[in-house]
Write a structure and sequence with these properties.
Length: 288
């Protein structure tokens, strides 16, 4: 049986993956440019784990500056079948407390400046995003995290805003009326692209604050966010180790691996040859 490959895109404060054996650094170029940082590839037991720092080492890339397409395409090139994005977020619900973990199962996209598809430029593809996470992987991730922190919330709606500023109070109350549970700035594009790349995708959200709707708490303060985040990162890393062990002997039985089947609308005869070549890791099995 081929070794499973688990990709991990880490957010703020999640710049390394302790527990990896035989670690090597891999630098890639993609048809979409350079990823945020070098990839770090190693092993946890029988599973290969590939880690990427979403904001770059030292946190130098703003949310709307992230090359999401290069990051996810790079994971595909390195053989990832599973992709976990680890994000920090504010809570929009009283019952979701700072310091807790959420495995988001739905998303609302409130961004407006970000490329969020591999396709276009001569090829039209429409994938389903009704259920944007892989239910099997999300279930395994929640079980892995609950062993670390029993307060983990196994579902929730993640609102992705443009940033880089935090919300106004009026916006925060509006988002609560939308029934969103957590608010952050990065995971939506990763969910979209993972589906197009036929990766099983799930999100692990590290809650750091109550956003600014919560009038009995201080307004969002970056110093307090960083303090809570540092404590959460240890939980997230232990969760990923548990997950790697959990998926070691599994075969994918979900529909994620065939997400592009029947979704390529363009006549293959008119797709530019250079585009077919660039996108071969994604569409090669469908276009020949």
């Amino acid at each position: 049986m081929a070794r499973k490959v688990l990709g991990v895109i880490g957010g703020s404060g999640f710049y390394q993956m302790p527990g990896l054996d035989h670690v090597e650094q891999v630098e890639l170029e993609t048809p979409f440019g350079k990823p945020s940082d070098p990839f770090y590839r190693g092993r946890i037991g029988e599973v290969e784990v590939v880690f990427l720092a979403r904001h770059g080492k030292g946190h130098r890339i703003l949310p709307d500056e992230i090359n999401f397409r290069a990051n996810v395409f790079g994971m595909k090139l390195l053989g990832a079948e599973y992709l976990i994005s680890v994000s920090t977020a504010g809570s929009l619900r009283e019952e979701i407390h700072p310091g807790e973990l959420v495995v988001a199962d739905q998303f609302i996209d409130h961004t407006f400046r970000r490329p969020s598809s591999f396709f276009g430029r001569g090829i039209v593809v429409h994938v389903s995003l009704a259920d944007p996470v892989c239910a099997d992987l999300a279930h395994a991730l929640a079980a892995s995290g609950r062993d670390v922190d029993p307060s983990l919330h196994p579902r929730g709606t993640y609102l992705c805003i443009e940033g880089p500023q935090f919300s106004t109070r009026a916006e925060s109350h509006l988002y609560r009326s939308w029934k969103a549970d957590v608010i952050s700035m990065t995971a939506m594009q990763e969910a979209r692209l993972a589906r197009e790349a036929e990766l099983c995708y799930a999100n692990l959200t590290l809650v750091t604050d109550y956003d600014c709707w919560h009038l009995t708490e201080a307004t969002v303060d970056i110093g307090e966010i960083l303090r809570v985040m540092r404590a959460n990162v240890d939980k997230a890393q232990k969760t990923i180790v548990n997950l790697a062990r959990a998926i070691a002997g599994r075969e994918r039985k979900c529909p994620c691996a065939a997400a592009l089947a029947g979704t390529i609308i363009t006549d293959p005869a008119v797709i530019p040859a250079a585009l077919k070549r660039d996108l071969r890791p994604l569409v090669g099995k469908y276009l020949g």
